């Protein structure tokens, strides 16, 4: 198997292996990443009879060969977020335009960033190289007109901002956040796997595994969110990004975010992106319904107390920086 044999194929999963990650590939047959999340598109693609019969698996080194001989689009912008704060709306608005290739929480990227957790010998330099290869492979245009490439990372990838910056030092980034009580309520209502105690290395929450496992879901969520926000603020001090509050959406996509990513949209493109805002971005079959009041009302006293204890000070700092950015 050589890189030339994989033209038109996309890496979809990483399989741990003692000698290095193995990569599973899928042929998208022209299918664009327009679903809310990367895995939604992949689940649709793998059901095709061709992919059921002709699945490919290679060593990760083949990504390096592909990167050298046929590099993909260089990333136009990165989207980091606090979790449940409107980042999917941003990525879906961008994905509405056919010239944009948008990956939303791609599992293979997260697996590369987490590789050291299942094998400590995969140090930072190794993961940086693999990340560059993986992004290059995922950045292969699915259609000839695609020229812009955006990546929305998982929420906990805010912890990897320094490594990601070393891999792509010239790519502008944004961090989307929301009122912490609303974010915690949303996570408790539909708990993501990454918000389960132990999902994030306990050392990053300044505790051991036993302590993390004994935490209430509310406290674990609050402390994880605080770490994401803290990392965004810390990284911003050296490599400034753009902070976006949920309350600014969707209009900020056409102003500050467009400027930050050095884009320009025509009137018709803006109208096309705005159509996305009429629907629930995670379930486009439903109309969008504002939920701020409902989330605030659903918050328990414990949620409010933990939000104030762990996240509120960082939220206030994010707001201070954002307001300074808006005034420039």
From TrEMBL:
SUPFAM superfamilies: P-loop containing nucleoside triphosphate hydrolases. InterPro entries: P-loop_NTPase (IPR027417). Pfam families: Sulfotransfer_3 (PF13469). Gene3D superfamilies: P-loop containing nucleotide triphosphate hydrolases (3.40.50.300). It comes from the Bacteria. This is Aspartyl/asparaginyl beta-hydroxylase.
């Amino acid at each position: 198997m050589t890189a030339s044999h994989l033209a038109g194929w996309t890496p979809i999963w990483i399989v741990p292996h003692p000698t290095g990650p193995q990569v599973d590939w899928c042929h998208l047959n022209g299918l664009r990443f327009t679903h809310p999340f990367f895995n939604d598109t992949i689940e649709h693609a793998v059901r095709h009879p061709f992919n059921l019969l002709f699945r490919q698996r290679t060593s990760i080194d083949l990504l390096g060969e592909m990167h050298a001989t046929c590099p993909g689009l260089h990333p136009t912008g990165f989207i980091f977020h606090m979790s449940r704060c409107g980042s999917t709306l941003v990525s879906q608005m961008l994905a509405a335009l056919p010239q944009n290739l948008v990956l939303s929480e791609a599992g293979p990227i997260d697996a590369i960033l987490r590789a050291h957790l299942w094998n400590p010998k995969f140090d930072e330099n190794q993961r940086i190289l693999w990340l560059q290869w993986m992004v290059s492979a995922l950045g292969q245009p699915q259609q000839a007109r695609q020229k812009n490439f955006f990546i929305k990372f998982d929420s906990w990838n805010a912890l990897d901002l320094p490594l990601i910056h070393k891999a792509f030092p010239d790519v502008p980034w944004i961090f989307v956040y929301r009122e912490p009580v609303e974010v915690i309520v949303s996570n408790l209502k539909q708990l993501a796997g990454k918000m389960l105690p132990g999902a994030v290395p306990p050392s990053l929450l300044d505790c051991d595994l036993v302590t993390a496992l004994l935490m209430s879901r509310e406290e674990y969520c609050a402390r994880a969110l605080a770490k994401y926000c803290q990392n965004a603020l810390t990284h911003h001090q050296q490599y400034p990004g753009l902070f976006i509050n949920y309350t600014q959406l969707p209009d900020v996509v056409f102003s500050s975010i467009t400027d930050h990513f050095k884009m320009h949209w025509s009137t018709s493109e803006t109208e096309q992106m705005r159509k996305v805002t009429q629907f629930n971005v995670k379930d486009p079959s439903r109309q969008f319904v504002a939920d701020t009041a409902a989330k605030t009302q659903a918050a328990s006293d414990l949620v409010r107390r933990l939000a104030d204890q762990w996240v509120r000070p960082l939220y206030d700092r994010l707001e201070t920086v954002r307001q300074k950015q808006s005034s420039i």
